[in-house]
UniProtKB/TrEMBL annotation:
It comes from candidate division WOR-3 bacterium. Pfam families: ZnuA. Keywords: Metal-binding, Signal, Transport. It is found in: Cell envelope. GO terms for biological process: metal ion transport. This is Zinc ABC transporter substrate-binding protein. One of its GO terms (molecular function) is metal ion binding. Coiled coil: none annotated. The lineage of its organism: Bacteria, Bacteria division WOR-3.
Amino acid sequence: MSRRLVTGAVLAVLLAAGCQHQGGDRLTIVASTANVGAVIRAVGGDRVECITLAPAGMCPGHFDIRPSHVAAVARADLIVRQGWEDWFDGLARELPEPRARVYTCSTGGNWMLPDVHRRAVGELTGLLAGLDSVAADTFRSRAAVYLARVDSAALLARASFSGRVLPRALAAEHQAPFLRWLGFRVVATYGRPEEFTASELTRLASVGADSAVGIVIDNLQSGPGAGRSLAEALHARHADLTNFPLDADYPATLVENARTLARLLE
């Protein structure tokens, strides 16, 4: 079954369960991550109150639930999650009779990649339009404007690297897809700092030296500065990039990540 059919089937279940909005009041939607929250805010505008649980600057996989999060979920019309949040089941258990329904996004992959982000926008626009039919055209119009911003940001991000000879890279696993999208060759990846062992560091140093690595890129959410000492040993340049939209603004974050990399090459 295609993702579109799966999404439609899930939406039909939500509507049948009484989750369709009647218009007038704003929808209250809880987003599990900054990825989801950025899209919901961009498409929903003032028709939606969006509450993001896991802050953009921290790892959403290691997120501590607070009473305020339980309270937010308790009054929500809908909870939207990406599907990999291990803490979500614990949050659900805190709600004996949750009013909100839960929607799990079918868009997989790294949402910081423009093509993946576009798919997420399409999915969540359809979700909002189904929940609030009165505002459906507004949601679609806002989505079109937002996607134009995404496309412009993607072109701007790539422009700094087009036609250039780019250095080889070591990267945190969550940043490797973005680097490859820009045209960098990622020769090896690594996980969180607590996963580093002597053998892993030896492997990375060996691959980095053999490949004449020029940059080492860490992931802000999973370990800023984790590869700094490795970069120093390899005489390579180092930077931290974010894997989630900061300030709920994906296009601006995409461009800023690219600018951070471009400054390394100056």
